Amino acid sequence: MMMWSNFFMQEEDRRRREAAGRRRAQGQHQLTPEREGKIKLGLLLSAVGATLAVLAVGTEFWVELNTYKTNGSAVCEAAHLGLWKMCTKRLWQADLPEGRDTCGPAELPGEANCTYFKFFTTGENARIFQRTTKKEVNLAAAVIAVLGLAVMALGCLCIIMVLSKGAEFLLRVGAVCFGLSGLLLLVSLEVFRHAVQALLQRVSDENPPAPALTYEYSWSLGCGVGASLVLLLGAGCFFLLTLPTWPWSLCPKQGPRDT
C-alpha cells in the first residue's frame, strides 16, 4: 500500500513540474506591452502599404495614352491601361480643360470600351491606336507584381504569428518578406515602364497612319510607388525591432568596483 501511495505522489509531482515548466515557457514567449505596441504600429504601417499595393495592381490607371485634339471634331480619343486591362475612351472636346492640346485626362466621362489583355489566355498581343504591345514585357511586369503581393501576404502572416503566438523569430522573416515585396513592386514598375516604351515604338505601317500620342503615368502607378516605399519602411521598422537595444545591451555590465 505504501508503494502505491509513493507512486501516486511521484506522479503528481511530475505533473506539477511539467505544468510549471509550461508556464515558464509561455512566460518567456510572451511579448511585453511596449514591444507588442511597436510591432502593432509596424503592422499598421505595413497594412497601409499592402492596401496601396492591392489598389495599384488591381486597377488599370497605370498610364494614359492621349491623342491630340483635331479641329472640326467634337470628340477625341484617349486610353488608359494597367497590368491586366486596357480601356479606350471617346471624350467630348468641350469637357477638356482649357489650354490642353491633348485628349484627356482619362477620368473624364465618355464612351469607354474596356477589354482584358489576351496574352494571359491566348497569347495574343493587344493593339492600341495602331500600336502593338510586347506581351513578354507586359507578362513579366504582371508576374513580378503578383509575386510581390504573395510575398507581402506571407510577411503579414509572419507578423500575425508573432503577435498571437509570441514566435519572435518570425519577426525577422516578416521584415525580409516586406522588404522583398517592396523591391518586387519597384521592379514591376520599371518593367512596366519598358513595356510602355515598347508599345509606343511598335507602330503599324497600315493605313490610315497611326495618330501621334502622348503618355503620362497615372494614379495607379503612384499607388504602386507609394506602396513600395511604405513596405520598405515597414520592413526597416521590423528589422530594427529584431536588433538588440542600442547601445546599452551591447555594453558589458560593470560590477561594483573595489574600494
Task: Please render the helix and strand layout as text.
Elements: H1 2-29, H2 33-58, E1 63-67, E2 75-81, E3 85-92, E4 111-116, E5 127-128, E6 131-132, H3 135-165, H4 169-201, E7 213-217, H5 219-242
Antiparallel strand pairs: 1-2, 1-7, 2-3, 3-4, 5-6
Helix pairs in contact: 2-3, 2-5, 3-4, 4-5
Task: Describe the protein's architecture and organization.
Strand 2 and strand 3 (85-92) form a beta hairpin. The chain has five helices and seven strands. Helix content is 55%, strand content 14%. The chain has 259 residues and is of the alpha+beta class. It has helices spanning 2-29, 33-58, 135-165, 169-201, 219-242; strands spanning 63-67, 75-81, 85-92, 111-116, 127-128, 131-132, 213-217. The N and C termini lie far apart (63 Å). The longest helix has 33 residues, at 169-201. The model is unreliable at 23-28 and 247-251 (pLDDT under 50). A five-stranded antiparallel sheet has the order 4-3-2-1-7. A two-stranded antiparallel sheet has the order 5-6.
Strand order of the largest sheet: 4-3-2-1-7
Q: What's the SSE pattern? A: HHEEEEEEHHEH
Q: For the CA atoms, what is the radius of gyration?
A: 29 Å
Enumerate how many helices there are, as a single number. 5
Strand content: 5-15%
Largest sheet: 5 strands, antiparallel
Portion in helices = 40-55%
Low-confidence stretches: 23-28, 247-251
Shape: elongated
* Count of extended strands: 7
Overall SS class:
alpha+beta
Mean pLDDT: 82
How far apart are the first and last residues' alpha carbons, in Å?
63 Å
Structure at a glance:
Helix content is 55%, strand content 14%. By secondary structure, the protein is α+β, with helices and mostly antiparallel strands.
